[in-house]
Amino acid sequence: MSYKEYALTELGWQVLRREADGFEMRFPHASKLVRRDKAAKPAAATGVPGDLMAMLRDLRRQLADRRSVPVYVVAPNRTLEDMARLRPTTKRAMLEIHGMGKGRFEQYGKTFMEAIREWNHS
Prior knowledge:
By secondary structure, this protein is an all-alpha fold.
């Protein structure tokens, strides 16, 4: 595997060392350079009941298995998190969930709403 090599001019080195007049070094996307922990946030940290999230994940897996599609086709994680946080029980409320369009609602939304209703009453 080969890597591209870049070289700095003398002025570039002076800018890096903050020795060059009239130049300021900025990193416009510094937040993207921060290494993020890929581990899932604990449910308590997101304000979402853990048992509700687990139930929604299980339901998503079942729906995905029935249609032989990846789980993200049924609902991405953010969609499940929004469902768990907002607990929609009407079509209108469900369509306001991130990632829940009309097509996804027609295929999966009613099943998720029923599950949320049952969870609310348990």
